[in-house]
Amino acid sequence: MHGLHAKAWHGVRKETWEMKGDAIDRERIREEATQWVAKSVAGFSAEEQDDFFIWMGADSRHSDEFAAAKKLWERMNNLSLWVPEHSDVPNMDLLQTQNRSFWRKGVSWYSAAAAALLITLGSVLILKSLPKEGMEFERSVVADDYDSEKLPDGSTVELNGGSEIFINYSETERHVTLLANEAYFEVAKDSKRPFIVEARGVKVRAIGTAFNVRIEQDEIEVLVTEGTIQVASEEVDSDESRDGSLVAETVVAELTVGEMTVISVEDPEPVKEVQKASIQELEQRLNWKPKMFEYDSTPLWQVVNDFNMRNHVQIEIADPELEDALIVISLRSSSVDHFIDLLEFSMGIQAKYVAEDRVRLSKG
Q1: Measured between alpha carbons, how far is residue 338 from residues 124, 295, 344 in Å?
Q2: Rounded to whole angstroms, what are the CA distances from 207 to 55, 174, 226, 229?
Q3: Which residues contact 136 (CB under 8 A, 6 or more apart)?
Q4: For the packed helices 46-58 and 2-42, what is the interaxial angle rounded to 10 degrees?
Q5: Beta carbons of 189 and 168 less than 8 angstroms apart
Q6: Do 46 and 147 meet the contact criterion of CB atoms below 8 Å apart?
Q7: Spatial separation of the C-alpha atoms in residues 336 and 325, rounded to whole Å
Q8: Between 223 and which of 28, 161, 239, 260 could a Cys-Cys bridge form, CB atoms 3.0 to 4.6 Å apart?
């Protein structure tokens, strides 16, 4: 009997330790999910987006915890609907959930998760808003595929595949040279340091705005999506110094939201007409820029349609039963391969390339 009791006691201890291990593992996943929600609210960088995809695909529990943490944040965010003049205390209905048992069974988890989410989100936002030390900065970036770079002043540059830039920040100027293809800039405001993008002698000046610059043969195309910019061309003396000293600079045009122009780099009088771009033209010219897809319990068929509209590779759903499968994901529209891998890793869906540009989804 003593041996049987010892064996039983060993079994109980083993089961207890396994339960403790599972609880610790779940807590770790919840904490990681909370951090990912905070980063998604603050805005994913390209590197964070890829790391997020890897994390989501590593464990099927990750997507569930991410969805739960995201819904928690949305409920907490509802407190913004309350202002002091409404009442002395917030209406608790703003935090109410449809699942009443949640409040009875999960109050302690909710409180801890809410606190962790607020602390994590606050830390991320504060770190992102802190000014960068040092005014001088140099860097070259070559993008084989789409790339997004966060600059020291908080500005962002998105590079189309095949693009190349050289970044040179000084105390008086933020200067970026576009050497190949095209780039889209979102400029942080700094009245003391203008932001200048130069492409083959054509300069685009801005303080705080968003615009696209593209090199095409002997022309430079400039398109503005936010704010106002000034476009100028350089005239350099034939006996210019080695550092390319500027002899004269001619303002070609001023562009505002929705306007575009094309500047000739060969024409001695490069003035071109400023055109108003239609919504269709804007979408077409900026279609290379990935869009951030955010889905929360969205049917698979809808997600597939969105990816198909923005990518050469087309996805088709072979089994009708999969069409209404609910998807929770945050992913760039260009990340078709990542999306397909995620379906295989986390949902057990089988993906088969039936052609170079066509993928068929079926039940695993």
Answers
A1: 25, 15, 10
A2: 37, 10, 11, 8
A3: 169, 170, 171
A4: 150
A5: no
A6: yes
A7: 18
A8: 260
Alpha-carbon Rg for the chain, nearest whole angstrom, is 27
Contact 61, 144 (CB under 8 A): no
Model pLDDT for residues 127-173, shown as the tens digit of each residue: 444 444 447 889 999 988 888 898 989 999 999 989 999 999 999 99
Angle at 191 (CA atoms; ends 190, 192), nearest 5 degrees: 90
200-204: long-range contacts at Cβ-Cβ below 8 A with a sequence spacing of 24 or more? 200/265, 201/233, 201/234, 201/236, 201/265, 202/231, 202/232, 202/233, 202/234, 202/252, 202/263, 202/265, 202/270, 203/231, 203/232, 203/233, 203/234, 203/249, 204/229, 204/230, 204/231
Could you give the C-alpha distances from 197 to 186, 233, 317, in angstroms and in order?
A: 12, 12, 44
In the structure encoding, which two tokens stand for residue 185, read together?
Answer: 């800039």
Examine the pLDDT at 103 and tell me if it is beyond 50.
no
As a whole number of angstroms, the distance between CA 309 and CA 288 comes to 12
Q: What is the pTM of this model?
A: 0.54
Alpha-carbon distance of 188 to 356, in angstroms, equals: 41
Interatomic CA distance for residues 223 and 285, integer angstroms:
9
- Helix, strand, coil percentages (3-state) for the chain, rounded to 5, are 40, 30, 30
